[in-house]
Amino acid sequence: MQARTKVLLVVLIVFLAGLGYLGVRIARHGFSAREKPSRLEELLARHARKIATPAFLIYAKCELLLGRDDFRLSTEAREVIRFIYEKAHGIESLAKERLSILGEVA
Q1: Among 46, 36, 42, 27, CA closest to 95
Q2: 8 A C-beta contact, residue 71 and residue 83
Q3: pLDDT at 102
Q4: d(C-alpha 5, C-alpha 68), whole Å
Q5: What's the CA gap between 66 and 68, in Å, rounded?
Q6: DSSP code of 32?
């Protein structure tokens, strides 16, 4: 085996060992809202909140457009708005699910 191959193999083993350690640590301790959240937990929660709020606003606007008949939207426009409505609801639900997994980290 060449020296370069050995170095790459060692780096890969160390990387996989680090991932394994992280996985075991999360599996044993999980994410807790009582303890001080890690930087990763804070980052994930902040990101999920940034996604959830605009998704909810898009969802609400689409719901308003679909619920009113006096806008006289074409069939194609209604289909597009319904598609956006469903996708925004899915994104909002996913973001809220991520926040509940993280225990509403600040």
Answers
A1: 46
A2: no
A3: 56
A4: 65
A5: 6
A6: -
**What pLDDT score was predicted for residue 75?**
84
Question: Terminus-to-terminus CA distance in the chain, angstroms?
Answer: 50
Strand ranges in 1-106 using DSSP code E only, listed in sequence order: none
**Rg, the chain, Cα only:** 22
pLDDT of residue 105: 46
Distance CA 78, CA 65 (A): 8
Whether residue 66 contacts residue 6, with contact meaning beta carbons closer than 8 Å, is answered with: no
Contact between 31 and 103 (Cβ < 8 Å): yes
With 0.90 as the threshold, say if the pTM is over it.
no
> What does pLDDT average to in each consecutive run of 10 residues of the chain (106 residues)?
78 82 74 68 75 77 77 81 84 74 53
